[in-house]
């Protein structure tokens, strides 16, 4: 059940989204650009063979990359402009808009709080292009294109799986393998007691399993195909997330969030300081 604080935060967040924002345009441009980049790369390849095998190591590297980005950038406050903006958008906005008590959206306008801004895909395309160019020089052009295709494809899977984590419960998300796994995995991550250090993956929970940051105690295969199964939650986390992700006690993070609320007259009060006792939505919230 949604708390009053979460309800007010949602109301004020939505009120500050620009009327020019269109969620369908947002995801339409993202998917069109991503698919076009993949199609262009495939069209430039000449009789690729073994180069397709590079998909696996590049995808695994991307899995650990998303884990590192989520844990060390999106959930770590640093007094650097771009990094601080990422932290604010994710920890202070996304994680107050969605909790494990209510992690779903109901309108197209809410795509703004789920999908990354367009500039993220642009940065990835530039960075991926540089890496792919280097691989193309070292190995061959086909290898470079496969690297680029995998990086763009990984980003699109990330966005799609994340979207599936925040839509209302339905037959597809409950029964589709991999999707049901990451949905339970990510909704549990939205528990304020564990969000800073548990369940950082958003495609497959490979890095979480390998690095010990998963909330489950089972093998890699069991992690990937866990679905909604809650029988393997680590004993030390059960008092925090409970059954079906319901929090059972207030942890240090939860107490900090409550203290933040008591100190702030509005849950969206802006402040220029980087101290974490205010929740602010920047004036650019409606921008893509």
Structural notes for this entry:
The chain has 288 residues and is mainly α. The chain has one domain. The longest helix is centred in the middle third of the chain and has 26 residues. 30% of the residues are buried. About 12% of the residues have low confidence.
In one word, what is the shape? globular
Query: Percent of residues in beta strands?
Result: under 5%
Largest sheet: none
Elements, N to C (H/E):
HHHHHHHHHHHHH
Q: Which secondary-structure class do the elements indicate?
A: mainly alpha
> What is the percent of helical residues?
55-70%
Number of helices: 13
Q: Say how many strands there are.
A: 0
Low-confidence stretches: 245-280
Mean pLDDT comes to 86
Q: How many domains make up the coordinates?
A: 1
Quick recap of the structure?
The chain is mainly α. The protein has one domain. The chain contains 13 helices and no strands.
Which helices and strands occur, and which strands form pairs?
Elements: H1 4-15, H2 23-44, H3 55-74, H4 81-97, H5 111-114, H6 118-138, H7 141-166, H8 171-175, H9 179-189, H10 206-211, H11 220-224, H12 238-241, H13 252-263
Helix pairs in contact: 2-7, 3-7, 6-7, 7-9
Key features?
288 residues, 13 helices, mainly alpha
């Amino acid at each position: 059940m949604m708390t009053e604080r979460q309800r007010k935060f949602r109301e004020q967040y939505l009120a500050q989204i620009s009327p020019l924002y269109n969620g369908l345009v947002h995801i339409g441009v993202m998917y069109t650009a991503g698919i076009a980049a993949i199609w262009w790369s495939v069209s430039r390849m000449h009789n690729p063979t073994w180069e397709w095998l590079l998909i696996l190591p590049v995808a695994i590297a991307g899995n650990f990359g998303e884990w590192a980005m989520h844990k060390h950038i999106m959930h770590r406050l640093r007094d650097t402009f771009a990094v601080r903006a990422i932290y604010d958008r994710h920890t202070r906005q996304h994680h107050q808009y969605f909790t494990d008590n209510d992690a779903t959206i109901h309108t197209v306008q809410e795509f703004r709080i789920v999908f990354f801004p367009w500039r993220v895909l642009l940065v990835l395309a530039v960075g991926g292009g540089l890496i792919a160019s280097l691989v193309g020089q070292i190995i061959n052009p086909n290898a470079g294109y496969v690297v680029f295709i995998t990086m763009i494809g990984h980003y699109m899977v990330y966005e799609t799986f994340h979207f599936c984590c925040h839509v209302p419960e339905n037959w597809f998300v409950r029964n589709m393998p991999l999707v049901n796994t990451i949905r339970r995995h990510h909704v549990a991550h939205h528990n304020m007691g564990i969000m800073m250090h548990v369940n950082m993956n958003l495609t497959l929970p490979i890095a979480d399993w390998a690095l010990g940051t998963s909330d489950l105690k089972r093998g890699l295969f069991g992690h990937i195909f866990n679905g909604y199964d809650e029988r393997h939650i680590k004993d030390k986390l059960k008092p925090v997330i409970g059954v079906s992700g319901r929090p059972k006690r207030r942890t240090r993070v939860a107490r900090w969030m409550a203290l933040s609320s008591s100190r702030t007259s509005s849950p969206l009060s802006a402040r220029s300081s980087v101290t974490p006792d205010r929740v602010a939505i920047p004036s650019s919230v409606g921008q893509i």
